[in-house]
Write a structure and sequence with these properties.
Elements (H helix, E strand, L loop, with lengths): L27 E6 L10 H4 L7 E3 L4 H6 L7 H10 L10 E6 L7 E2 L2 E2 L6 H5 L17 H5 L5 E3 L7 H14 L2 E5 L6 H6 L14 E4 L3 E5 L4 E5 L1 H15 L14 E4 L13 H7 L2 E5 L7 E3 L16 H19 L8 H20 L3 E8 L6 H5 L5 E7 L15 H7 L4
Parallel strand pairs: 1-3, 1-6, 6-7, 7-8, 8-12
Antiparallel strand pairs: 2-3, 4-5, 9-10, 9-11, 12-13, 14-15
Helix pairs in contact: 3-8
Length: 423
């Protein structure tokens, strides 16, 4: 490009240079359910703004303000309050994006609003003829409107429905998220394990599904008593709290749930015993809870429903999430590099930028190590002239101390030393 004539000094500012690979948000939860919006909006026109819309909630007081009060039969206020109850050290409750699928003018018995009329199809959602999304379909457009994708999907009181779980699986795969699904209330431990069998209701090997059992007991201000609640809403809250306090590379297991007052069904936990209820459930790929003297009720499990079928580290909840976060951060960074001149310096700069991000993650304790390299072997001259370039990402998330084994031996030499014996 020819320069214009100029006589005298000038400064030309260039905005090029190495970019920074930025962390993406992990503590973003997308939750679908029902809310008593008729209690805060007087007309159908007003209520439309709270039906099948993404409602962002960052503070506890926004629950009643945007969704209505906690009320029997409505899942969202209860679920989101359970999440905020897990906040640690003033870290906040992350970002919760709620979608209310209840329409009091449609879901009713006679003239009375009735949340039990909401179906799996309402929760799953659809696209209108004009392309307007509803239900879980609203998760897909989050980046365009809010600038981030959800990393945790939940639908307490609806995940026992096969159609809802199937949709959550689709969305989790598309959005690089995990989803939490409750096993039905009332199951025995054996029935919960059998649900994972070939003919069971939860026969899946998804590395994005976290299956929870049993339901938990917590205080319900509506009835002023302890009530049984879905585990999924409590685990979502613990995952948010753990992300904000420690980082997404920490396992959500063995965290005390301070607001949980009991389990739907007593589970026997004996430290060191292979035949405990928790061991049987974890062995079947079910995330459970435990309690022992002076410990409080705690989350208990490290693996997704990918276990026991999957044999690689992808089966661990924290590994799946670390990889998702690294992949998404790299993807966002690379978007800005598309359609730029593919000079050697440019390709090397891309390599160094992502490599620096991996070194940062290693320093933070999320990775044992990582490496990002321009693949000069796989990329051919034909590829280069066709605009295609290959990079390779290698990394290994830090493992979790799931099992600690102590080999114990009886050593009579200690008696010899203590007593001053010659042999």
């Amino acid at each position: 490009m020819a320069d214009n004539y100029h006589h005298g000094p000038e400064i030309v500012e260039h905005l090029e240079g190495n970019s920074v690979v930025r962390e993406v948000k992990s503590a973003v939860t997308f939750v679908v359910g029902t809310a008593p919006i008729q209690d805060i909006y007087a007309t159908a026109g007003d209520r439309a703004q709270a039906i099948n819309k993404r409602i962002v909630i960052r503070r506890r007081e926004q629950i009643a303000e945007l969704l209505g009060p906690r009320k029997a039969g409505y899942s969202l206020p209860e679920a989101i309050e359970s999440m905020f109850n897990k906040v640690q050290s003033g870290k906040g409750g992350g970002t919760i994006v709620a979608v209310n699928v209840f329409d009091p003018d449609t879901h009713k018995e006679g003239t009375m609003p009735d949340p039990t009329k909401v179906t799996a199809a309402d929760v799953v959602g659809t696209y209108s003829a004009g392309g307007v999304a509803s239900g879980f379909k609203l998760a897909r457009g989050m980046f365009n409107t809010l600038g981030y994708f959800p990393k945790i999907l939940a639908a307490p009181r609806f995940t026992t429905l096969a159609g809802v779980r199937a949709e959550m699986e689709v969305q989790a795969n598309d959005l690089s998220a995990v989803y939490i699904a409750d096993l039905p209330a009332g199951l025995t431990v054996q029935q919960a394990v059998e649900a994972r069998g070939a003919t069971g209701s939860h026969n899946t090997s998804s590395m994005r599904a976290i299956l929870t059992y049993p339901h938990l007991k917590a205080y319900d201000p509506v009835i002023d008593d302890v009530a049984v609640q879905p585990y999924s809403q409590h685990l979502a809250g613990m995952m948010i709290a753990s992300d904000l306090s420690y980082g997404y590379h920490y396992s959500p297991s063995n965290r005390q749930m301070g607001d949980v007052l009991g389990l739907e069904r007593d589970l026997e936990f004996i430290p060191g015993r292979y035949d405990s209820d928790q061991n049987a459930l974890n062995e079947a790929g079910i995330f459970t809870a435990m309690n022992y003297f002076g410990s409080g009720y705690r989350t208990w499990g490290n693996r997704t429903a990918g276990f026991p079928t999957m044999t690689t580290a992808h089966q661990f909840i924290h590994v799946r999430r670390v990889l998702d976060m690294i992949h998404e951060a790299a993807l966002y960074y690379l978007m800005d590099k598309i359609d730029r001149p593919a000079t050697k310096n440019f390709l090397d700069d891309v390599e160094e930028d992502v490599d620096a991000f991996l070194r940062k993650k290693e320093g933070e304790g999320a990775l044992y190590g990582g490496r990002f390299r321009f693949d000069r072997t796989k990329t051919t001259s034909r590829d280069a002239t066709d605009g295609r370039f290959y990079y390779r990402l290698d990394c290994m998330p830090v493992g979790v101390t799931e099992r600690l084994t102590v080999d114990s031996y009886l050593d009579i030499s200690f008696a010899q030393t203590a007593l001053g014996l010659t042999s």
